[in-house]
Design goal:
The chain is low in regular secondary structure and 154 residues long. The chain is 8% helix and 10% strand. It contains two helices and six strands. Strand 5 (144-145) and strand 6 form a beta hairpin.
Length: 154
C-alpha cells in the first residue's frame, strides 16, 4: 500500500483507526450478538421505500436483505459498530445511524444515490475530517452529513 498524501485524506488512512468494543455491552444475555437474521420473519420489510430497524438492539447487520425500492433506512438506537453486511442498496438516499457505536467505516460500500447520512452520537463523529471521510467511504456526492449541508470546502 502506498503512503497517503498529507494534503488529501484517503480511504487507506481512514481504515487505520480502531475503536475497541466495550466489554460485555454489545452482547445479549445469552452471549450472542444480535443480527438482522435473528429478527422474527417478516419484521424486516420495506414500507413505501422505508425500512425501520430502530431500537432493535442489533449488533450486526448480518442477514440484511437487498431492497431495490428502499430509499430511507432507519437504524438509530442500536449497538452497531460498523457498516458490515449493509451491502449495496442502489436506491437508498438516506441512512440514519444515530446513537449506535459506529467506530469506523469497515464494510462501507459505495451507495450511488445516498445523499444524507446521519451518524450523530457515534464515536466516529469525533474524528478530524469526519465529513470528508463520510464522503470518501460511501459517496462523494453526499449532500448532508448529520443534518448539515456538506460544503465544497470540506
Amino acid at each position: 500500500p502506498g503512503v497517503a498524501s498529507a494534503a488529501a485524506p484517503s480511504l487507506d488512512r481512514i481504515r487505520v483507526f480502531f475503536c475497541p468494543r466495550p466489554e460485555g455491552s454489545l452482547f445479549l444475555e445469552n452471549g450472542r450478538e444480535r443480527t438482522v437474521s435473528d429478527l422474527a420473519a417478516g419484521t424486516v420489510t420495506s414500507s413505501f421505500g422505508t425500512v425501520n430497524l430502530r431500537e432493535r438492539r442489533l449488533t450486526s447487520l448480518e442477514g440484511f436483505p437487498y431492497f431495490e425500492d428502499m430509499h430511507t433506512l432507519f437504524l438509530q438506537d442500536n449497538l452497531l459498530s460498523n457498516f458490515d453486511h449493509l451491502g449495496v442498496q442502489p436506491g437508498c438516499t438516506s441512512i440514519t445511524l444515530d446513537r449506535n457505536r459506529i467506530c469506523d467505516f469497515t464494510g462501507a460500500e459505495r451507495l450511488p444515490k445516498l445523499r444524507s447520512l446521519s451518524l450523530e452520537q457515534n464515536p466516529i463523529e469525533e474524528w478530524d475530517l469526519f465529513v470528508v471521510m463520510c464522503c470518501l467511504a460511501v459517496n462523494p456526492q453526499l449532500l448532508k452529513v448529520n443534518g448539515r449541508v456538506v460544503t465544497k470546502q470540506q
